[in-house]
Specification:
Layout lengths: L2 H13 L2 H7 L1 H30 L4 E6 L9 H5 L6 H8 L7 E10 L3 E3 L2 E3 L2 E5 L1 H8 L3 E4 L4 H5 L4 E4 L1 H8 L8 E4 L2 E9 L4 E2 L2 E2 L3 E5 H9 L6 E6 L5 H16 L9 E4 L1 H23 L1 H20 L1 H9 L4 H41 L10 H27 L3 H6 L2
Parallel strand pairs: 5-12, 7-9
Antiparallel strand pairs: 1-13, 1-14, 2-5, 2-13, 3-4, 3-8, 6-9, 7-12, 8-9, 10-11
Helix pairs in contact: 1-14, 3-11, 3-12, 3-14, 3-15, 5-10, 12-14, 12-15, 14-15
Protein backbone atom coordinates (compact mmCIF):
# COMPACT_ATOMS: atom_id res chain seq x y z
CA UNK A 1 0.00 0.00 0.00
CA UNK A 2 1.65 3.25 -1.11
CA UNK A 3 1.80 6.47 0.91
CA UNK A 4 -0.81 8.21 -1.25
CA UNK A 5 -3.42 5.58 -0.45
CA UNK A 6 -2.45 5.59 3.23
CA UNK A 7 -2.86 9.39 3.32
CA UNK A 8 -6.28 9.23 1.65
CA UNK A 9 -7.46 6.52 4.01
CA UNK A 10 -6.22 8.48 7.05
CA UNK A 11 -7.95 11.67 5.90
CA UNK A 12 -11.26 9.84 5.31
CA UNK A 13 -11.08 8.29 8.74
CA UNK A 14 -10.44 11.65 10.44
CA UNK A 15 -13.14 13.48 8.47
CA UNK A 16 -15.73 10.85 9.46
CA UNK A 17 -15.35 12.09 13.05
CA UNK A 18 -14.82 15.84 12.66
CA UNK A 19 -15.98 16.82 16.15
CA UNK A 20 -13.84 14.21 17.84
CA UNK A 21 -10.84 15.17 15.73
CA UNK A 22 -11.19 18.85 16.68
CA UNK A 23 -11.55 18.05 20.38
CA UNK A 24 -8.58 15.71 20.16
CA UNK A 25 -6.22 18.40 18.87
CA UNK A 26 -7.47 21.10 21.24
CA UNK A 27 -4.51 20.63 23.60
CA UNK A 28 -2.07 20.90 20.69
CA UNK A 29 -3.81 24.05 19.42
CA UNK A 30 -3.66 25.70 22.85
CA UNK A 31 0.00 24.73 23.37
CA UNK A 32 1.21 25.99 19.98
CA UNK A 33 -0.99 29.09 20.21
CA UNK A 34 0.45 29.96 23.64
CA UNK A 35 4.03 29.52 22.46
CA UNK A 36 3.32 31.61 19.34
CA UNK A 37 1.86 34.43 21.44
CA UNK A 38 4.73 34.36 23.93
CA UNK A 39 7.49 34.31 21.30
CA UNK A 40 5.82 37.01 19.20
CA UNK A 41 5.19 39.21 22.26
CA UNK A 42 8.83 38.78 23.30
CA UNK A 43 10.00 39.81 19.83
CA UNK A 44 7.67 42.81 19.85
CA UNK A 45 8.91 43.89 23.30
CA UNK A 46 12.53 43.58 22.18
CA UNK A 47 11.79 45.62 19.04
CA UNK A 48 10.02 48.30 21.09
CA UNK A 49 12.76 48.59 23.72
CA UNK A 50 15.47 48.64 21.07
CA UNK A 51 13.72 51.49 19.29
CA UNK A 52 13.22 53.44 22.53
CA UNK A 53 16.86 53.09 23.56
CA UNK A 54 18.17 53.95 20.11
CA UNK A 55 16.03 57.09 20.12
CA UNK A 56 18.19 58.40 22.98
CA UNK A 57 21.29 58.32 20.86
CA UNK A 58 24.56 56.64 21.71
CA UNK A 59 26.06 59.67 23.49
CA UNK A 60 24.39 58.95 26.84
CA UNK A 61 25.98 56.96 29.67
CA UNK A 62 24.02 55.98 32.78
CA UNK A 63 25.55 55.44 36.22
CA UNK A 64 23.41 53.34 38.56
CA UNK A 65 24.00 52.74 42.28
CA UNK A 66 24.69 49.19 43.43
CA UNK A 67 26.38 46.37 41.59
CA UNK A 68 25.04 45.41 38.18
CA UNK A 69 21.95 43.18 38.62
CA UNK A 70 22.40 39.68 37.28
CA UNK A 71 18.71 38.90 37.10
CA UNK A 72 15.23 40.48 37.42
CA UNK A 73 15.11 39.86 41.19
CA UNK A 74 18.15 42.08 41.81
CA UNK A 75 16.72 45.22 40.24
CA UNK A 76 14.76 46.08 43.40
CA UNK A 77 17.95 45.85 45.49
CA UNK A 78 19.70 48.22 43.09
CA UNK A 79 16.89 50.77 43.38
CA UNK A 80 17.33 50.90 47.18
CA UNK A 81 21.11 51.39 47.09
CA UNK A 82 22.45 54.82 48.12
CA UNK A 83 26.07 54.73 46.99
CA UNK A 84 26.04 57.65 44.51
CA UNK A 85 26.28 61.00 46.30
CA UNK A 86 27.18 64.65 45.73
CA UNK A 87 30.94 64.12 45.98
CA UNK A 88 30.72 61.60 43.14
CA UNK A 89 28.94 64.14 40.95
CA UNK A 90 31.52 66.83 41.71
CA UNK A 91 34.38 64.47 40.89
CA UNK A 92 32.75 63.33 37.63
CA UNK A 93 32.15 66.94 36.55
CA UNK A 94 35.90 67.72 36.75
CA UNK A 95 37.45 67.61 33.29
CA UNK A 96 40.67 66.26 34.73
CA UNK A 97 38.84 63.13 35.90
CA UNK A 98 36.46 62.52 32.98
CA UNK A 99 37.64 64.61 30.02
CA UNK A 100 35.15 63.00 27.64
CA UNK A 101 32.08 64.06 29.65
CA UNK A 102 30.16 67.02 28.25
CA UNK A 103 27.47 67.08 30.96
CA UNK A 104 26.93 65.15 34.19
CA UNK A 105 23.42 65.36 35.65
CA UNK A 106 22.04 63.31 38.57
CA UNK A 107 18.40 62.27 38.96
CA UNK A 108 16.20 61.83 42.04
CA UNK A 109 12.94 59.87 42.09
CA UNK A 110 10.08 61.66 43.86
CA UNK A 111 7.10 59.62 45.05
CA UNK A 112 3.82 61.37 45.77
CA UNK A 113 1.35 63.70 44.11
CA UNK A 114 1.01 67.29 42.94
CA UNK A 115 -1.99 69.49 43.71
CA UNK A 116 -3.50 72.88 42.88
CA UNK A 117 -6.54 74.32 44.67
CA UNK A 118 -8.01 70.97 45.60
CA UNK A 119 -7.13 69.24 42.34
CA UNK A 120 -4.68 66.39 42.97
CA UNK A 121 -2.77 64.34 40.42
CA UNK A 122 -0.16 61.54 40.67
CA UNK A 123 2.28 62.03 37.77
CA UNK A 124 5.84 60.78 37.35
CA UNK A 125 7.94 63.26 39.35
CA UNK A 126 11.70 63.52 39.33
CA UNK A 127 14.46 65.83 40.40
CA UNK A 128 16.53 66.51 37.31
CA UNK A 129 17.68 69.26 34.97
CA UNK A 130 14.89 70.51 32.71
CA UNK A 131 17.36 71.98 30.22
CA UNK A 132 19.32 68.71 30.05
CA UNK A 133 16.14 66.72 29.45
CA UNK A 134 15.15 69.17 26.73
CA UNK A 135 18.50 68.61 25.01
CA UNK A 136 18.46 64.80 25.27
CA UNK A 137 14.84 64.28 24.24
CA UNK A 138 14.63 67.27 21.90
CA UNK A 139 11.80 68.87 23.89
CA UNK A 140 10.62 72.46 23.82
CA UNK A 141 8.36 74.29 26.28
CA UNK A 142 4.82 74.87 25.03
CA UNK A 143 4.68 77.90 27.30
CA UNK A 144 7.01 79.52 29.80
CA UNK A 145 10.63 78.42 30.11
CA UNK A 146 12.72 75.53 31.42
CA UNK A 147 14.75 76.14 34.57
CA UNK A 148 18.52 75.86 34.26
CA UNK A 149 21.67 75.52 36.33
CA UNK A 150 20.98 78.69 38.32
CA UNK A 151 17.76 77.24 39.72
CA UNK A 152 19.59 74.01 40.60
CA UNK A 153 22.44 75.86 42.32
CA UNK A 154 20.04 78.05 44.33
CA UNK A 155 17.69 75.12 45.14
CA UNK A 156 14.75 77.09 43.81
CA UNK A 157 11.27 75.65 44.30
CA UNK A 158 10.29 75.68 40.64
CA UNK A 159 8.69 73.02 38.46
CA UNK A 160 8.15 72.19 34.80
CA UNK A 161 4.95 70.29 34.02
CA UNK A 162 4.04 67.90 31.26
CA UNK A 163 1.09 68.92 29.09
CA UNK A 164 -1.25 66.28 30.57
CA UNK A 165 -0.42 67.32 34.14
CA UNK A 166 -1.02 71.00 33.32
CA UNK A 167 -4.36 70.22 31.68
CA UNK A 168 -5.45 68.05 34.62
CA UNK A 169 -4.65 70.73 37.21
CA UNK A 170 -5.42 73.96 35.31
CA UNK A 171 -7.73 72.97 32.47
CA UNK A 172 -7.55 75.56 29.71
CA UNK A 173 -5.91 78.17 31.98
CA UNK A 174 -2.21 78.91 31.77
CA UNK A 175 -0.09 77.07 34.35
CA UNK A 176 2.94 79.37 34.12
CA UNK A 177 3.51 81.41 37.27
CA UNK A 178 0.96 79.44 39.31
CA UNK A 179 1.86 77.89 42.66
CA UNK A 180 1.39 74.14 43.01
CA UNK A 181 1.98 71.91 46.02
CA UNK A 182 4.27 68.88 46.06
CA UNK A 183 4.39 67.14 49.46
CA UNK A 184 2.97 70.31 51.06
CA UNK A 185 5.78 72.41 49.58
CA UNK A 186 4.98 75.35 47.28
CA UNK A 187 6.49 75.24 43.79
CA UNK A 188 6.18 77.89 41.10
CA UNK A 189 5.50 76.59 37.59
CA UNK A 190 8.01 78.03 35.13
CA UNK A 191 6.98 76.14 32.03
CA UNK A 192 4.87 73.46 30.39
CA UNK A 193 6.43 70.92 28.06
CA UNK A 194 5.11 70.41 24.57
CA UNK A 195 3.54 67.04 23.78
CA UNK A 196 6.42 64.57 23.42
CA UNK A 197 4.72 61.20 23.37
CA UNK A 198 6.27 58.11 24.92
CA UNK A 199 9.98 58.22 25.80
CA UNK A 200 11.60 55.24 27.51
CA UNK A 201 8.17 53.93 28.58
CA UNK A 202 7.01 57.09 30.28
CA UNK A 203 4.73 59.72 28.85
CA UNK A 204 6.31 63.18 28.62
CA UNK A 205 2.86 64.62 29.25
CA UNK A 206 2.74 62.84 32.64
CA UNK A 207 6.05 64.27 33.83
CA UNK A 208 6.88 66.83 36.53
CA UNK A 209 10.51 68.02 36.78
CA UNK A 210 11.99 69.99 39.66
CA UNK A 211 15.68 70.80 40.33
CA UNK A 212 17.41 67.74 41.76
CA UNK A 213 18.97 69.81 44.54
CA UNK A 214 15.53 71.10 45.52
CA UNK A 215 14.11 67.58 45.47
CA UNK A 216 16.74 66.36 47.91
CA UNK A 217 16.39 69.33 50.25
CA UNK A 218 12.61 69.78 50.40
CA UNK A 219 10.98 66.60 49.11
CA UNK A 220 12.98 63.42 49.70
CA UNK A 221 15.36 64.41 52.49
CA UNK A 222 18.04 62.16 51.01
CA UNK A 223 21.70 62.77 50.21
CA UNK A 224 22.02 60.25 47.40
CA UNK A 225 20.96 59.98 43.76
CA UNK A 226 18.96 57.28 42.04
CA UNK A 227 20.77 57.68 38.73
CA UNK A 228 23.34 59.82 36.93
CA UNK A 229 23.21 60.75 33.25
CA UNK A 230 26.45 61.56 31.45
CA UNK A 231 26.48 63.02 27.94
CA UNK A 232 29.74 62.48 26.08
CA UNK A 233 31.25 65.08 23.79
CA UNK A 234 32.28 62.50 21.18
CA UNK A 235 30.54 59.14 20.72
CA UNK A 236 33.86 57.66 19.58
CA UNK A 237 35.18 58.22 23.12
CA UNK A 238 32.30 56.47 24.88
CA UNK A 239 34.34 53.44 25.97
CA UNK A 240 37.22 55.52 27.32
CA UNK A 241 34.75 57.78 29.13
CA UNK A 242 33.17 54.73 30.77
CA UNK A 243 36.60 53.65 32.03
CA UNK A 244 37.31 57.15 33.36
CA UNK A 245 33.98 57.15 35.20
CA UNK A 246 34.72 53.77 36.79
CA UNK A 247 38.22 54.80 37.80
CA UNK A 248 36.98 58.05 39.36
CA UNK A 249 34.23 56.46 41.45
CA UNK A 250 36.41 53.52 42.50
CA UNK A 251 39.04 55.92 43.78
CA UNK A 252 36.43 57.88 45.76
CA UNK A 253 34.89 54.72 47.21
CA UNK A 254 38.23 53.05 47.96
CA UNK A 255 37.52 50.10 45.64
CA UNK A 256 40.48 48.21 44.22
CA UNK A 257 38.66 45.06 43.10
CA UNK A 258 36.20 45.68 40.22
CA UNK A 259 34.14 42.70 41.40
CA UNK A 260 33.32 44.72 44.53
CA UNK A 261 31.98 47.78 42.71
CA UNK A 262 29.03 49.42 44.49
CA UNK A 263 27.87 51.02 41.23
CA UNK A 264 27.56 50.05 37.58
CA UNK A 265 27.84 51.95 34.32
CA UNK A 266 25.59 51.39 31.34
CA UNK A 267 25.79 52.48 27.73
CA UNK A 268 23.19 52.13 25.02
CA UNK A 269 24.79 48.86 23.88
CA UNK A 270 24.84 47.51 27.47
CA UNK A 271 21.19 48.36 27.98
CA UNK A 272 20.21 46.71 24.71
CA UNK A 273 22.09 43.52 25.61
CA UNK A 274 20.81 43.49 29.18
CA UNK A 275 17.19 44.11 28.23
CA UNK A 276 17.23 41.62 25.37
CA UNK A 277 18.79 39.01 27.65
CA UNK A 278 16.13 39.47 30.33
CA UNK A 279 13.31 39.30 27.79
CA UNK A 280 14.80 36.17 26.24
CA UNK A 281 15.06 34.47 29.64
CA UNK A 282 11.49 35.33 30.56
CA UNK A 283 10.17 34.36 27.12
CA UNK A 284 11.92 31.01 27.17
CA UNK A 285 10.76 30.29 30.73
CA UNK A 286 7.13 31.06 29.98
CA UNK A 287 7.31 29.21 26.65
CA UNK A 288 8.65 26.15 28.47
CA UNK A 289 5.66 26.28 30.81
CA UNK A 290 3.29 26.64 27.86
CA UNK A 291 4.95 23.62 26.23
CA UNK A 292 3.44 21.47 28.99
CA UNK A 293 0.15 21.88 27.13
CA UNK A 294 1.76 20.05 24.22
CA UNK A 295 2.50 17.07 26.47
CA UNK A 296 -1.08 17.10 27.73
CA UNK A 297 -2.27 17.28 24.13
CA UNK A 298 0.03 14.40 23.23
CA UNK A 299 -1.43 12.22 25.98
CA UNK A 300 -4.90 13.12 24.71
CA UNK A 301 -3.91 12.10 21.20
CA UNK A 302 -2.65 8.74 22.47
CA UNK A 303 -5.83 8.06 24.45
CA UNK A 304 -8.15 8.91 21.59
CA UNK A 305 -6.09 6.87 19.16
CA UNK A 306 -6.28 3.86 21.50
CA UNK A 307 -10.06 4.29 21.62
CA UNK A 308 -10.07 4.54 17.84
CA UNK A 309 -8.08 1.30 17.56
CA UNK A 310 -10.65 -0.49 19.69
CA UNK A 311 -13.59 0.95 17.73
CA UNK A 312 -12.02 -0.01 14.40
CA UNK A 313 -10.95 -3.54 15.34
CA UNK A 314 -13.18 -5.13 12.68
CA UNK A 315 -11.89 -2.63 10.10
CA UNK A 316 -8.32 -3.61 10.95
CA UNK A 317 -9.19 -7.31 10.60
CA UNK A 318 -10.90 -6.74 7.27
CA UNK A 319 -7.96 -4.74 5.89
CA UNK A 320 -5.54 -7.44 6.95
CA UNK A 321 -7.75 -10.12 5.44
CA UNK A 322 -7.67 -8.20 2.16
CA UNK A 323 -3.88 -8.13 2.14
CA UNK A 324 -2.84 -5.12 4.25
CA UNK A 325 0.43 -5.78 6.06
CA UNK A 326 1.31 -4.99 9.66
CA UNK A 327 3.40 -2.07 8.40
CA UNK A 328 0.45 -0.73 6.37
CA UNK A 329 -1.80 -0.67 9.43
CA UNK A 330 0.89 0.95 11.55
CA UNK A 331 1.62 3.58 8.91
CA UNK A 332 -2.05 4.44 8.58
CA UNK A 333 -2.59 5.05 12.29
CA UNK A 334 0.69 6.93 12.58
CA UNK A 335 -0.32 9.09 9.62
CA UNK A 336 -3.64 9.86 11.29
CA UNK A 337 -1.88 10.93 14.49
CA UNK A 338 0.61 13.13 12.64
CA UNK A 339 -2.14 14.69 10.51
CA UNK A 340 -4.13 15.50 13.64
CA UNK A 341 -1.26 17.16 15.47
CA UNK A 342 0.01 18.94 12.36
CA UNK A 343 -3.44 20.43 11.83
CA UNK A 344 -3.43 21.43 15.49
CA UNK A 345 -0.06 23.09 15.03
CA UNK A 346 -1.22 25.06 12.00
CA UNK A 347 -4.41 26.16 13.78
CA UNK A 348 -2.38 27.10 16.87
CA UNK A 349 0.07 29.22 14.87
CA UNK A 350 -2.72 30.93 12.93
CA UNK A 351 -4.83 31.70 16.01
CA UNK A 352 -1.76 32.82 17.99
CA UNK A 353 -0.68 35.17 15.18
CA UNK A 354 -4.20 36.62 14.97
CA UNK A 355 -4.33 37.24 18.73
CA UNK A 356 -0.88 38.90 18.71
CA UNK A 357 -1.92 41.10 15.78
CA UNK A 358 -5.10 42.23 17.57
CA UNK A 359 -3.15 42.82 20.79
CA UNK A 360 -0.60 44.96 18.95
CA UNK A 361 -3.41 47.11 17.55
CA UNK A 362 -5.02 47.43 21.00
CA UNK A 363 -1.75 48.32 22.77
CA UNK A 364 -0.86 50.90 20.12
CA UNK A 365 -4.32 52.45 20.28
CA UNK A 366 -4.92 52.49 24.04
CA UNK A 367 -1.48 52.40 25.71
CA UNK A 368 0.25 54.75 23.28
CA UNK A 369 3.25 52.46 22.69
CA UNK A 370 4.50 51.88 19.17
CA UNK A 371 3.95 48.14 19.67
CA UNK A 372 4.64 46.55 16.30
CA UNK A 373 3.36 43.16 15.18
CA UNK A 374 6.31 40.76 15.14
CA UNK A 375 5.72 37.29 13.72
CA UNK A 376 8.59 34.83 13.43
CA UNK A 377 8.19 32.48 10.46
CA UNK A 378 11.04 30.19 11.65
CA UNK A 379 9.37 29.94 15.09
CA UNK A 380 6.02 29.18 13.45
CA UNK A 381 7.58 26.50 11.26
CA UNK A 382 9.29 25.01 14.31
CA UNK A 383 5.96 24.98 16.14
CA UNK A 384 4.28 22.99 13.37
CA UNK A 385 7.22 20.58 13.21
CA UNK A 386 7.10 20.08 16.99
CA UNK A 387 3.38 19.39 16.86
CA UNK A 388 4.00 16.81 14.11
CA UNK A 389 6.70 15.23 16.25
CA UNK A 390 4.25 15.04 19.17
CA UNK A 391 1.84 13.15 16.92
CA UNK A 392 4.61 10.80 15.81
CA UNK A 393 5.78 10.06 19.38
CA UNK A 394 2.38 9.72 21.04
CA UNK A 395 0.79 7.98 18.06
CA UNK A 396 3.45 5.27 17.93
CA UNK A 397 2.02 3.10 20.71
CA UNK A 398 -1.61 3.10 19.42
CA UNK A 399 -0.35 2.42 15.88
CA UNK A 400 1.69 -0.50 17.12
CA UNK A 401 -1.29 -1.89 19.05
CA UNK A 402 -3.41 -1.65 15.90
CA UNK A 403 -0.83 -3.37 13.73
CA UNK A 404 -0.47 -6.27 16.17
CA UNK A 405 -4.15 -7.20 16.02
CA UNK A 406 -4.75 -10.70 14.66
CA UNK A 407 -7.01 -10.59 11.60
CA UNK A 408 -9.01 -13.63 12.76
CA UNK A 409 -9.60 -12.21 16.25
CA UNK A 410 -10.31 -8.78 14.79
CA UNK A 411 -12.99 -10.15 12.46
CA UNK A 412 -14.64 -11.95 15.38
CA UNK A 413 -14.71 -8.73 17.44
CA UNK A 414 -18.18 -7.39 18.13
Amino acid sequence: MNFKNILKSALKSLLRHKSRSLLTILGIVIGIMSITIIVSAGNSATHLITGELQSLGSDIIWIEPGREPEGPTEFAQTALTNTIKERDIRALQKKSNVPGALEVVPAVSIPGSISYRGETYRPLMMGFSAEFMSTVFDLEPKEGFLFGEAAIADKERVAVLGASVAEELFGSDSAVGKIVKIKDQNFRVTGVLAEGGQVLFFDIGELVIVPYSTAQTYLTGTDHYNEVWVRVADVANTDSTVEDIKATIRELHGISDPDKDDFHVLTQANLLDQTSGIIDIMTNAVAAIAAIALLVGGVGIMNIMLVSVTERTREIGLRKALGATTKDIMRQFLTEAVLLTSAGGILGVASGALIVFLLSLAITAFAGFAWSFQFSIPAATLGVLISSLVGLVFGLYPARKASERSPIEALRYE
